[in-house]
Design brief:
nine-stranded mixed β-sheet, Spore Coat Polysaccharide Biosynthesis Protein SpsA, Chain A, Glycosyltransferase 2-like domain-containing protein, Nucleotide-diphossugar_trans, Glyco_trans_2-like
């Protein structure tokens, strides 16, 4: 039997995209799948969507929480899978993503974490570009989180090794903080050279809304801790991050976000 995979889906007022996210998970056809939805008390019709899929869910709840990181931790506290992942309620798994990730983690003795390439889509689900990732070199990862979260899968044994929880002090960069903890404890990363997830850009997206408000502060905090770049070096770190972003984005997306 294939190992059980637990996927946690945090959501809050994402009715416009939630069903597409759920469909992308169940369309994988993976035979040993545990899906957990943690909704933050949505009032936009999300609960009605979740109820339609209730028979396929291992557990779901809709109640106020302390934000996305807290919601994800609530979900993982219920998860029983040997392999873990989370998928935000506006993003997608691409066809074959789950079986590809699980097969690599099972087949390779040198993989605790796997990740793949990322497609970029707009609010209509239209392809607007690609985010092409590289290997997880320690030095680069300490400066910038270039690993696409929606393509990220890891072993439960590693999760338990780092405390079985995301750090709730981080509201924006919690995935990067987790990756840095993985790296610090000796986790072995492997890149899968295949498009495995789709990251959605839309007006209400948390990434767009929070990067200026709290995102840069959290990222700077992580660089100081892991890359040892206090003081004015943080400006070099930010420049390095923007350079990496420019390098990884395809030309179509660059035209949207880096117009002069």
């Amino acid at each position: 039997m294939q190992p059980k995979l637990s996927v946690v889906i945090p959501s809050y007022n994402q009715a416009a995209y939630l069903e597409d996210t759920l469909k992308s998970v169940f369309a994988q056809g993976y035979p040993n799948l545990e899906v957990i939805v943690v909704d933050g008390g949505s009032d936009d019709g999300s609960v009605e969507i979740i109820k339609r899929y209730a028979s396929k869910l291992a557990w779901w709840v809709s109640e106020p929480d302390n934000g996305q990181t807290h919601a994800i931790n609530k979900g993982f506290a219920r998860a029983t899978g040997e392999i873990l992942a989370w998928l935000n309620s506006d993003d997608l798994f691409l066809p074959g993503a789950i079986s590809t990730a699980v097969n690599r983690l099972v087949a390779s003795e040198n993989a605790d974490v796997v990740y793949g390439q990322r497609m970029l889509i707009n609010e209509k689900g239209e392809d607007i570009g690609q985010w092409v990732v590289s290997e997880a070199h320690s030095y680069v990862l300490a400066y910038a989180d270039f690993i696409p979260q929606e393509t990220l899968f890891w072993k439960r044994s590693l999760w338990e090794k780092v405390g079985s929880a995301l750090n709730e002090d981080y509201k924006f960069a919690m995935d990067w903080e987790l990756l840095l903890r993985f790296k610090a404890c000796g986790a072995r990363f492997q890149k899968i050279d295949r498009f495995m997830g789709a990251f959605r850009f839309h007006p209400a997206q948390k990434t767009v809304a929070q990067i200026g408000e709290s995102g840069f502060k959290e990222m700077e905090k992580l660089r100081v801790a892991y890359a040892k770049t206090p003081g004015k070096s943080r400006y070099n770190a930010r420049a390095m991050t923007l350079t990496l972003i420019r390098f990884m984005l395809t030309s179509r997306l660059k035209e949207l976000f880096f117009r002069h």
